[in-house]
Design brief:
165 residues, mainly alpha, Helix Hairpins, two-stranded antiparallel ribbon, 5 helices
């Protein structure tokens, strides 16, 4: 079973629902038919499908996700932080399968955070594209970037020096 198109999305016309793989079509049909190492067709639009599917979540069909979405933005952000740490721990253990599992958890919680804060995946992709066009790759912005290239970051109001983070 994978995610397919339904109705009633928070940010668009069709919220995905679970459908058998044999009936997949449309935006959630895979990654341009490209097969992955696992033999299954998957791709980056899985994030878009998840984001849309969050609009269909109820306490009855997905109680854990419903509880997460009903919690505060701070709680969801905490889950993102926790999952990022778990990815790092699996990397330190040289556990590729663990990195994959924890990365999926991280992405799930990150998409839930985007959903809670009304951010669309396209907003993130546009930011990445902007960076790639300006920097040649969608990497983290340099600390000493050209102020005309990107909006100024908010000034820190004390605390730890960000360069030491």
């Amino acid at each position: 079973m994978t995610i397919g198109r339904g109705t009633g999305a928070r940010h668009g016309a069709g919220a995905p629902t679970l459908v058998p793989d044999s009936e997949r079509s449309g935006a959630c049909a895979g990654f341009n038919g490209r097969e992955r190492r696992s033999g299954r067709s998957v791709g980056p639009n899985e994030i878009d499908c998840l984001h849309h599917a969050l609009g269909k979540v109820t306490a009855e069909n997905h109680p854990r996700t419903a509880k997460l979405l009903a919690s505060s933005t701070r709680k969801v952000a905490q889950k993102v932080f926790e999952e990022a740490g778990e990815v790092a721990l699996e990397a330190a253990r040289h556990n590729a399968r663990g990195i994959v599992r924890e990365s999926a958890d991280l992405l799930y919680n990150l998409v839930a955070l985007w959903y809670r804060t009304d951010i669309l995946p396209d907003d993130v992709w546009a930011e990445m594209r902007s960076r790639a066009l300006k920097l040649g790759i969608a990497e983290k912005l340099p600390k000493d970037r050209d102020p005309d290239a990107f909006p100024a970051a908010p000034k820190s109001t004390g605390g730890d020096d960000e360069r030491n983070a």
